[in-house]
Design brief:
Elements: H1 5-34, H2 38-64, H3 83-110, H4 114-153
The structure holds fe (ii) ion (2 copies).
């Protein structure tokens, strides 16, 4: 089925976002594992897997709309050097992604592509969950202090 050209460009741009964060989160989750923060490692790894799934769904949709998915494009990565930077970067990235999905949904509605609206809405809800997670971490760091927060994150570390 032939898709709307403007929407395809947007879907490919979202795909680049997803592939970028897959890489960003994989690196950050392994950094956390290396520091012995097992809980943080697992949580960020889970997000990387979610982003991978989003990339897969977007690729599937773009192919269905008779276009070629662009998988060779990555945006600039923001890999934090500390847990604080990691949490803040992730929060920024996810807030931006939520905005982009909302914009894409608006466009998909305008071009009467309900299938894309449904897919983008499904992804948007997961991205809102990611924002929620990052905000929760920031709130905990603020309320209990970084040291106490990090002690909590050592749970489940590799022995
Ligand atoms: Fe995503
Ligand atoms: Fe996300």
């Amino acid at each position: 089925m032939k898709g709307n050209e403007k929407l395809i460009i947007v879907l490919n741009s979202l795909l680049a976002d997803e592939l970028t964060v897959v890489n960003q989160y994989m690196v950050q989750s392994e950094m956390c594992a290396n520091w012995g923060y097992g809980k943080l490692h697992k949580a960020i790894r889970k997000q990387a897997m979610d982003e991978m799934l989003h990339a897969e769904w977007l690729i599937e949709r773009i192919i269905f709309l008779d276009e070629a998915p662009t998988v060779s494009r990555l945006n600039t990565m923001k890999i934090g050097k500390t847990v604080s930077e990691i949490v803040n970067n992730d929060n920024d990235v996810e807030l931006n992604v939520v905005k982009e999905y909302n914009d894409a949904i608006k466009l998909a509605r305008e071009v009467d592509d309900q299938g894309s609206v449904d897919l983008l809405t499904k992804i948007l809800k997961m991205e809102e969950g990611h924002v929620d997670w990052a905000e929760m971490q920031r709130a905990q760091i603020e309320q209990m202090g970084m040291e106490n927060y990090l002690v909590n994150q050592t749970e489940g570390s590799a022995s």
